[in-house]
UniProtKB/TrEMBL annotation:
This is AraC family transcriptional regulator. Residues 79-108 are annotated as: Disordered. It comes from Streptomyces chryseus. Residues 23-73 form the HTH araC/xylS-type domain. The keyword Nucleotide-binding does not apply. It comes from the Bacteria. Keywords: Transcription, Transcription regulation. InterPro entries: Homeodomain-like_sf (IPR009057), HTH_AraC (IPR018060).
Length: 108
C-alpha cells in the first residue's frame, strides 16, 4: 500500500511535467508564429490530445492556443512589415456613404 503523500507527490510531478510541455508549446508558437500552425499539430508535438492541450493551455495562459497564435501574429506584424495591421492595406473606397466623395458632374 502506498503512503498518501506519494500520490500527492506524483500528482505534483505530473502537473510540473504538463506545465513544461505547455511551455514548450508556447515557445514553439513564439518561434514559428509565421508558419501555418494548428492545435492538432501543436498537440502532436506535445504528445497530448488536442482537446487536453486546449484546456490546459487556456488554464495556464488565459487564452486558447489559437487565440495565442493570433495575438502573437498581430504583435509581430508591425515589426516585420513596419506598419500596424489596420494600415497595411490602403483603403480603396469609402467606408460609409457619408464619406463618399462628391461626384463632379460629367460634361458632354
Amino acid at each position: 500500500m502506498c503512503h498518501p503523500s506519494w500520490g500527492r507527490a506524483r500528482a505534483a510531478a505530473q502537473h510540473l511535467s504538463d506545465l513544461a510541455r505547455l511551455r514548450r508549446v508556447r515557445d514553439r508558437i513564439d518561434r514559428e508564429h509565421a508558419q501555418p500552425l494548428n492545435v492538432e499539430a501543436l498537440a502532436r508535438g506535445a504528445d497530448m490530445p488536442a482537446g487536453q492541450l486546449s484546456r490546459q493551455f487556456r488554464l495556464a495562459y488565459g487564452k486558447s492556443p489559437y487565440a495565442y497564435v493570433t495575438a502573437r501574429r498581430t504583435t509581430r506584424f508591425p515589426e516585420s512589415v513596419g506598419l500596424p495591421p489596420w494600415t497595411a492595406k490602403p483603403v480603396t473606397g469609402p467606408v460609409r456613404n457619408e464619406e463618399a466623395p462628391d461626384a463632379e458632374p460629367q460634361l458632354a
